[in-house]
Design goal:
This protein is an all-alpha fold and 333 residues long. The protein is 63% helix and 0% strand.
């Protein structure tokens, strides 16, 4: 559900639907407008926004309804995700009161869902006043919280109780992929995908000349520098994932390598085709698959490190004879 929610959020952004609902009503907002009077009221509120005045003054109410239903679907699914996670946390507290590890993780998930809802409105509010678009910083924060929630849920679902507290050497892979994916939100917020229409070079060079005229303090506000940064982080993640998977026996690591380089290929295709919406949605969806696979691979490493030491297979596990406590998987108890 969280995967679908983040993908749908990307569709909302690509279609320009995010500012069609100008109020934030967590409970009353579940009920959409039905009558012509209600539709006229919400359309009148939208006509007061800067986005309508600058970009969409030609919209009729029928066109507005299509935008509204996309944003409404996104918010409704967000409420459903929040409800499922809260019910799961409550049920776990009743049925497994001693499972403190799972309880902490579900509390973190509930907190992330609450923060995501607040930041979602905080992001929308930035585009309802003077600017005809949302802040790219707030968009990146909203997307980053979505990645964090998705990674937390994937990791929690996969990890076995006996291996919960083992630290992993695979965390750098997950963080590297997450940072590269997160930087894409800045690109989306600034529409920086149009800054360079060639791949892998940018304006005929790996380091384009126009970067030299951008001040360091303005680096995250300029499409050219944000575009360059996203490409650099993506290639760094691709090389790093290959290096970490070189001697690994974990099949998920190989899947992760394929997904990361598929993501780079989709990014290249995206810029040379001038960022079509359907391809941008695929690019974002694959980024989420990268995060899920990195989180699951991290969990597998945790398991195997306890069993065989490092990322080796289970073949080295000894069979415990009666009374032989030294052969237990964790050593003597």
């Amino acid at each position: 559900m969280t995967f679908a929610l983040v993908v749908l959020g990307g569709v909302v952004r690509l279609t320009g639907s995010g500012l069609s609902i100008t109020t934030w009503e967590p409970l009353a907002g579940v009920i959409p407008p039905f009558s012509d009077t209600q539709w006229a009221h919400v359309f009148a509120a939208y006509r007061e926004t800067a986005e309508y005045r600058v970009y969409n003054s030609h919209l009729a109410i029928e066109d507005f309804r299509r935008l509204y239903w996309l944003e409404y679907s996104h918010r409704l699914l967000a409420r459903a995700v929040a409800l499922v996670i809260c019910l799961t946390a409550a049920t776990t507290a009743l049925t497994k009161p001693r499972d403190t590890w799972l309880a902490r993780r579900l509390v973190a998930a509930v907190a992330l869902v609450g923060a995501q809802g607040f930041v979602g409105w905080y992001m929308v509010a930035s585009g309802l006043d003077r600017a005809p678009h949302v802040s790219h910083y707030r968009l990146a924060l909203h997307f980053g919280l979505g990645l964090a929630l998705l990674g937390l849920l994937a990791d929690t679902a996969w990890r076995a109780p006996a291996h919960r507290r083992h630290l992993t050497r695979s965390l750098p892979v997950l963080l590297t992929c997450a940072i590269a994916a997160w930087s894409g939100a800045l690109v989306a917020g600034l529409k920086a995908g149009h800054a360079f229409a060639t791949f892998p070079l940018m304006a005929g060079a790996w380091l384009p000349d126009r970067l030299s005229s951008i001040a360091i303090g303005d680096w995250l506000n300029q499409p050219a520098s944000v575009h360059f940064q996203h490409r650099a982080l993506a290639f760094a993640a691709g090389i790093f994932v290959v290096a970490r998977a070189w001697r690994s026996r974990d099949p998920l690591r190989r899947v992760l390598v394929a997904l990361v380089w598929l993501q780079i290929g989709l990014g290249g295709l995206l810029v040379v085709t001038h960022v079509p919406a359907w391809l941008a949605s695929m690019h974002q969806a694959n980024a989420l698959l990268v995060i899920i696979c990195a989180a699951l691979s991290s969990s597998v490493v945790r398991r195997r490190a306890l069993v065989g030491g490092g990322e080796s297979s289970f073949a080295n596990r000894r069979v415990r004879a009666p009374g032989d406590e030294s052969a237990c998987l964790g050593g003597p108890k």
